[in-house]
Structure formats: C-alpha cells, structure tokens
Amino acid sequence: MLGLIGSRLLQMIVVGLFLTFATFVLMKLAPGDPVKTILNIDDVAVTQAEQEAVRQSLGLDQPLVVQYTEWFWRVVRLDLGESYITHRPVADLIESKLGATMTVTLGGLTVMLLIAVPLGILSAVYQNRWVDQLSRLFSLIGVSLPSFWLGLVLIYWFAYQWRLLPSMGNGGLMHLILPSVTLGIAMAGVYTRLLRSGLIKSLAEPYVRAARARGLGEVRVIIVHALREGVLPVVTMFGMSLGSLLGGSVVVEMLFAWPGLGKMVVDAIIQRDYPVIQGYVLCTGMLVVLINLGVDLTVRMLDPRLRWRS
Amino acid sequence: MGFDGMLTSGKMGMNKRKSERTSTGTKTTPAERNIPPVLQIDDLSIHTRADSSGKRLVRNLNLTIQPGEMVALIGESGSGKSVTASAVTGLLPAPLSMSGGRILFQGRDTATLTSPERRAMLGKEISVVFQDYAGSFTPFIKIGKQLIEMIRRHMGWNKTTARVLATQALEQVELAAERVMDSYLFQLSGGQQQRVAIAAALMLEPDLLIADEPTTALDTLTGETILQLIDSLRHKTKCAVLFISHDLHHVIKRADRIAVMYGGEIVESGPTDVLVREARHPYTRFLLQSRMDLADVPARLQSIPGEPGAVSACGCPFALRCPVRIARCDSEAVPEMMVSDGHTARCHLIGEAQGDLGAAEITRTS
User: Fold this and answer.
1) Is A177 helix (H, G, I), strand (E, B) or coil?
2) Rounded CA gap, B32 and B96, in Å?
3) Could A212 and B122 be called an inter-chain contact, meaning their C-beta atoms sit closer than 8 Å?
4) Which 3 state secondary structure label does DSSP give A55?
5) Is B310 helix (H, G, I), strand (E, B) or coil?
6) Structural contact between residues B212 and B129, judged by C-beta atoms closer than 8 angstroms
7) Does A224 reach chain B within 8 Å, measured CB to CB?
C-alpha cells in the first residue's frame, strides 16, 4: 500500500519533468512570438529595439536549456511565474479556473453515471432482449454524436426555442445542466457497454450461482454480489475520463463560454503565453497521476484479493 | 396436522417433524410409515434447448429420496448427474431446460413454484455444496457477513442472533469461527473453504442437502474428512443427502442407496448392499470390478471397454461399450425393470446370464 503510494509519487516527479520539458521545447519550436502579442504589434508601431528589450526582460533571448532550468528552479520554489499578458500569477489563474472545470466535470460524470449505471445493469441482466438492444442503439448514437453538435442542438432547443435553460457562462445549477448533459451523453455509451460486459462476465461466476443457491433474492445477488466485480473495469475507465475532463473539456467550455481550464489554455496558446501553458501542463499532469493513484486504491478496496496478493 | 402446514409453519414445524422422525422405531422404513419422500423425481428429461430439439442430457429419470436418507448418484463426467441436481434446485444454466417429468420436493411440484418461493426454499430447505469450493462465496465480502446475510434472508433475525448461529455453524465444522468470520474466502485453504460451504449449507437445518462432487477437487485425506463431516452432520440434523460423485468407493461406504447413471439415464439403482452384491447392469458390474482392493491386488486393473462418454443415440445408452449386448440393445429402448424390492435396472439381459465381462477387456487390449 505505502509502496504503491511511494512509487506513484516518484512517477509524478518523472511525469512532471518529462511533460514540462517536452511542452517547453515544442512551444519554442512552434511559430509565433509572445513579444509581438505583448507589444500589440499589429496595432501599434514598435521598433526592433523595443522588441529586443521586452525579449531580454523575459529572458527569451537565453538558450532553451537555460530558460527551462530557470523555470524549473522557480517551480521547485512553488512559483509558476506570471502571465505575459495579464501579469497575474499563473498559480492564481489556474486556481480560479480549476473550480469551474471541476464543477462541470462532476456534473458531466453525474449525468453519465445516471444514464450508464441503470442502463448497463439492465442490459446485462436482460442480455439480448429489447432493453439491451435499445441501450446498444443508444450507446452507438451517444458515441457517434460529436459533442459540439450535441451541445449546439441542446442550446438551440433548451436555451433558444424553449428558453428553459441559460446557454452561457457559470452562474449556478441552471447553468451547469446543459454542459453536463452534453458531456454526460457523450461518455455514457462507452460506460454502458463497459458495465454491461463486466456484469455479464461476473454474473457467470460460480460465486453468483452459489449466492443464488443460498436463496438470496436476485436483486441482492446482482447489486451486492455480482456488481462489485463488474464495476472494476468501469472504475479504471473512470480514472481516465476524470483525468481528461479535469484537463478541461475544451469543446464544451468554448461552446458554453464556461470559464474553465480548457478555455484558459486555448486562449493562452493563441497568445503564446508560455508560463500559463507550462503551469497548466504541469498541473494536469500531476492531477492525472494522482487520479490514477486514487483509481488503484479504489480497485484494491473493491477487490480484497489484490490487497492480499502484494 | 397436514404436511404442508408443517412446512409453512417454519422452524417450529420443522423441529417437530424431525423429532417425530427420530422417535419412530428403526424397524420400519419411512415409506412404510407413509411419510412422503423428501424428493421425488418422476420421469425427468432435460434437453439443451427448451423445445426438446437440442441434445438430450437426461432421459426419463426416476429417483426418490426418503427423509434422512443418503442417496448417491454416480456416473462418469457428462452422464447428467450435476444437471439433474441443478434441475432440483431450479438453477439449470441458461439454455438447458426440463423437457419432461416433474420434481416433487416435500410433495410440492417445484415447477409450480414462483421464483421468490423457489429462492426462499433454497438455502433453507434445500442446500447445495458445490465441487468448486473456491466459488462457494463471493470473494469480495467477508465470510461472516455472507453467513449472516443468508441467515437473515431466511429467518429474518437481527444481526446479533444471526451472528451467534453463524459462529456455531462454523464451530460445527471444526473451524476457528471468529477468525473465519473475519476472513475472505481466498484466505482459507481448499479444505477449509469446503468446510465453510458445508457449514452454510447445513446451518439452517435443511431437509435436503445436494452435495455435488464435494470432494473431487480436494486431496484424498481432506476429502475423507469432509465426507466424515457431512456424514456426522447429516445424522445430527436428520438431513437427507443427494450425494453426487464419480467415486464408487466413497459412496459404498456411506450411502443408503446408489443410483448409477450412464448417458443421462439411471441404468441401475438399489440399496447399497444389494447393488454391491448383485449388480445386474454390465456398467455397474464394470464399476464394481474396477475397484482396487489392497488385500487382493489384481495383476491387471480392470477397465471399462470403449471410449468413456460414448453414448448410443437409441436403444441402451451403454450399448456401444457393452461386451454382452444383443441386437435389441442397439434399437430398443430399455424400460426400468424391477430386479428385487427397491432394486431396478435398465438392461435387456436382466433375466439372463450375462457371462464374464472380463473377456471383453482382453480382446480390447490385445
């Protein structure tokens, strides 16, 4: 247990180093120049000397390795630097957006679970019957629909035609519904299928037959005895979804003007705001590792056999 | 008081009936005292598909078990023993289905039971011990919790009372109850796992225990202690046992009656001593001959000719391997014929001298 946590923390450091260095190099290789953005070069006449001065003050004239090392040592002192554009500390910026992203992530996952759990259980129990066929169709549609299109359709009907729900921004529960539903439906298909196949597999286990032979009711056999093993692949997948969602679901955040991390990083990339991009990559990398640790611990909690094997 | 009434009146009724059973003298058999059998299987057929179009796994099987009696169902793999047991519990795996006959448990046709009624019966009136002891409990839930769950499901007791009974049941099978209650199944050895399964099966004092090859996956010594355990507990709880096995040796020592299955049919059945002494069906005779006797080790161990599991599609299922078969055996189905009281066999040659079966063994190996 402690060994697992230790190795994951070590992994976190390695992942962090690799991720940030890779993005650092790629950013510099990509065309575009933050100095020009900072000086608003398209609107104002700026001399070469002025550009050089800004470049020098930001340390952008230094060799790549020197720049990265400087950035790295600041990170070790928990300083992610500040945005070139707004001059706000990157840590503050991420912190202010992370809440909104987490909210919509949780919203999306809740909608997904509300659809996938009952549908997955029903289609496993009534395998190849009409419920299963219907859920198969639904899953296929859910997976195939592009979320930007689904989001637009939802906005058109619920916000524009029927005026039931707000379409933009973050202002409470009502604002959360449309982005959550858009995210949830997109994910639900995969999870329904995953839960179905997991549960079908565990329902065929000898211990399920034994539970029935002890006279337990079918609902109890499914929910208490079979579901535990059937849910394991779902938990693993859940970790992956959570990781990618916390990185900011760009499409949904842009579509619903949701002030989250995804929107922030797209803006930062357009403006070549290097410190913001670097800070973002570092934070999401750490989050993904932490979530995977959480998934591993959850799976161990669910399956005691794994706990004793190590 | 009617028998059904006693059944529905629960534990009290059950105890009453049991004491009644013990107080009666040993001279008369339950049938003579007119006590209905615990289990009566009439003309049971099982096919791999519901419409009888699939493969036939069990054909026209008759079997009766009296209260407190231990009946052994023996036969080689695929002869239909376990499928018959599954039909009794109503837990036939999905595509298989009963295509004919009926199963009466305590005089009630199990086909008429609703699904909840059947579940209420399982674990309380009919218990099962499986061959696969590692799958007898859910691996993610502690054993104590599952035992208590089972007791509460059937008795509706509170947790504390249920815990007392569960602890007692584990002590009955000579396990360290407290430690086992707090363990997961995979933390125990195979023999211990099977003990827990037996404890759970007999905990609520069922009328019938179905032991489906309970020792096959265990080593000989552990298997022997498990058998002793079942034997002593069945006497203690007056529980009838349907013992499924392919080991004739185990069965002869303990069963009151033996039914021998081949290719989905009971080819011979009778009281253990009668069957051992005067088996009439060639297959039973082969089985008896293939036993090892330490006092008299044969130069060559007798084996049954032909390919194991070879079942003739029509006529007698054993016809393909039978050394004494006649033309009728390949075409004409064999009815169940009475040899003596309680001893039946399905063989066309039942009344005739069958001669020495060993001759076939020599021709086969030459």
Assistant:
1) helix
2) 36
3) yes
4) helix
5) coil
6) yes
7) yes
Overall residue count recorded for chain B in this entry: 366
Chain A, chain B: beta-carbon pairs less than 8 Å apart? 83
Q: Quick one: B251 exposed, middle or buried, by C-beta within 10 A (0-12, 13-18, 19+)?
A: buried
With CB atoms and an 8 Å threshold, state whether A209 touches B135: yes
Q: CA-CA distance, B288 to A284, in Å (whole number)? A: 73
Task: Mutation target for A interface from B82, B89, B119: give the one with most A CBs within 10 A.
Answer: B119
Taking the CA of residue A240 and the nearest CA in chain B, the distance in Å comes to 24
Q: What is the per-residue pLDDT for A215?
A: 93
CB–CB contact B186 A308 (8 Å): yes
Backbone angles phi, psi at B92, to 5 degrees: -60, 130
Structure confidence by residue, pLDDT tens digits, B94-126: 788 888 889 999 988 998 899 899 999 999 999
The rounded distance, in Å, linking the Cα atoms of B221 and B194 is: 13
The dihedral region occupied by B306, where left means phi > 0, alpha psi between -120 and 50, and beta the remainder, is left
- Structure confidence by residue, pLDDT tens digits, A114-145: 999 999 999 999 999 999 999 999 999 988 98
Asked whether B61 and B127 are in contact (CB, 8 A), the reply is: no
In this structure, chain A runs to a length of: 310
Reduce the secondary structure of A248-271 to three states and give it as a string. Answer: CCHHHHHHCCCCCHHHHHHHHHHC
CATH of segment(s) A91-309: 1.10.3720.10
CA distance B191 to A103: 52
Bigger pLDDT: A25 vs B304? A25
- Rounded to a whole number of angstroms, the distance from the CA of A224 to the nearest CA of chain B is 9
Read off the pTM. Answer: 0.81
- Distance from A198 to chain B by nearest Cα, in Å? 15
At B262, the amino acid letter reads: Y
Q: State whether residue A309 sits within 8 Å of chain B by CB.
A: no
Residues of chain B with pLDDT below 70 are: 1-34, 52, 291-302, 351-366
User: What is the edge-to-edge ordering of all strands in the sheet holding B39-47?
Assistant: B56-65, B39-47, B97-105, B108-109
Q: How far is B312 from chain A (nearest CA, A)?
A: 32
Q: What pLDDT is recorded for position B320?
A: 82
- The interface predicted TM-score (ipTM) is 0.81
Domain ranges of chain A: 91-309
CATH of domain B34-261: 3.40.50.300
**3-state secondary structure (DSSP) of residue B29:** coil
- List the domain boundaries for chain B: 34-261, 289-365
B-chain residues near A301 (CB < 8 A): none
Contact of A6 with chain B, judged by CB distance below 8 Å, is answered with no
Q: Give the single-character DSSP code of B28.
A: S
